[in-house]
Design goal:
about 0% strand; about 75% helix
Length: about 350
């Protein structure tokens, strides 16, 4: 791996030098590909458009986040910004240690392999591309083939651009992004073949417990074999040029709390009285549009609530609770609010007509 890492460091150094003036573009791309937006934007947006596809997408997001976190622990991948300082490869050869630029987005604290940004992006956009292709099924064969080619080409270019942004900020080696893409693609491909109908609240509770236990088991299994599961946090704190670049929301246990809370919240929302009432109503395009706007707006507002960072335990508990409420919000409360709002508006309109 040292040979692969060393050559990748040279590529990263060249990339940072060559595109120094375009750094803001790379920052924007890397930020937009953050897995948090899969939870805050893509999930509520797609669910508002189509409940069945939205539920499938949420399962893909949760599974991608969970599997990525376990793979990172198991594969024990380095990150460029600390490896270049921590390795003795350059001392052995007498070569000068390359200078990699660190940015405010660089110092992530989890292991680097595979890339979470690349993996979640590959999984989420596979579902979104499939939706678009399914909705274009009524066009002629030639146009259908053209749309298919354009969509999958754009999908590939998107993944390449996201990977370049992660490599540019020295958060990942190129092979880690490639592995993330492969894992994310095949994960989404597999999940689209699984039926999620008929799941009750108890199934979601059991799934939440399974996710948590599997993460905790992996954590303690690494301890048993003599490996420190939090070794990457120590490396990040040691080699990050500015301590303010290190954030609790990049730690492994933040991911655990996020996907466990989201899974439980999805089960609570789907099996609530509010969701059952909303499911009886046919949502018009206007109602769906309102649901999209409200769901994404409220989710983003919740996502930007500052969490207490004085205590790591309290921070993780707060993360868990917020991520329970997030899917309940757009799966149950917003749809129910839409139908009640429509009913109230209709009653007021009829009363106004009678009075007139």
């Amino acid at each position: 791996m040292d040979f692969l890492h060393k050559n990748s460091i040279s590529a990263i150094e060249m990339l940072q030098t060559r595109f120094q003036q375009q750094q803001n573009a790379f920052f924007t791309i890397s930020n937009l590909a953050d897995p948090r937006y899969a939870f805050l934007i893509y999930a509520p947006l797609v669910f508002s458009f189509d409940w069945k596809i939205g539920k499938q997408l949420i399962w893909v997001i949760i599974t991608a986040e969970w599997s990525n976190q376990l793979l990172k622990w198991i594969l024990h991948g380095e990150r460029p910004y600390w490896w270049v300082h921590d390795t003795d490869v350059y001392n052995k050869t007498g070569a000068i240690t390359p200078v990699l630029q660190q940015y405010f987005m660089t110092c992530e604290t989890g292991p680097g392999n595979p890339s979470g940004h690349a993996m979640v992006t590959a999984a989420v956009w596979y579902i979104l591309v499939n939706i678009l292709l399914e909705k274009s099924g009524g066009v002629s064969t030639s146009i259908k083939n053209l749309i298919t080619s354009v969509c999958w080409t754009a999908y590939t270019l998107l993944l390449c651009v996201v990977s370049l942004s992660r490599v540019y900020i020295a958060a990942h080696f190129p092979h880690q992004c490639f592995l993330g893409i492969i894992f994310g693609f095949y994960l989404a491909l597999t999940m689209t073949k699984i039926s999620l109908d008929g799941l009750k609240l108890r199934h979601y509770v059991m799934m939440t417990i399974s996710l948590f236990v599997s993460a905790l088991s992996t954590y303690f299994a690494l301890w048993v074999v003599g490996l420190n599961p939090l070794w990457s946090v120590e490396r990040a704190m040691k080699w990050c040029v500015k301590q303010e670049y290190i954030r609790l929301d990049t730690t492994p246990f933040f991911s655990v709390m996020r996907y466990c809370g989201y899974m439980l919240g999805l089960g609570v929302g789907l099996n609530s009285r509010f969701n059952r009432e909303a499911a009886k109503v046919h949502f018009t395009p206007v109602m769906k549009l309102w649901m999209m706007v409200l769901s994404v707006t409220l989710s983003m507002m919740l996502g930007w609530i500052p969490l207490p960072r004085s205590s790591a335990v309290f921070f993780y508990i707060s993360t868990f609770l917020i991520n329970i409420f997030l899917p309940v919000l757009f799966v149950a409360l917003v749809p129910y609010g839409i139908i009640k709002g429509k009913s109230t508006f209709y009653c007021l309109s009829e009363q106004f007509k009678k009075e007139k």
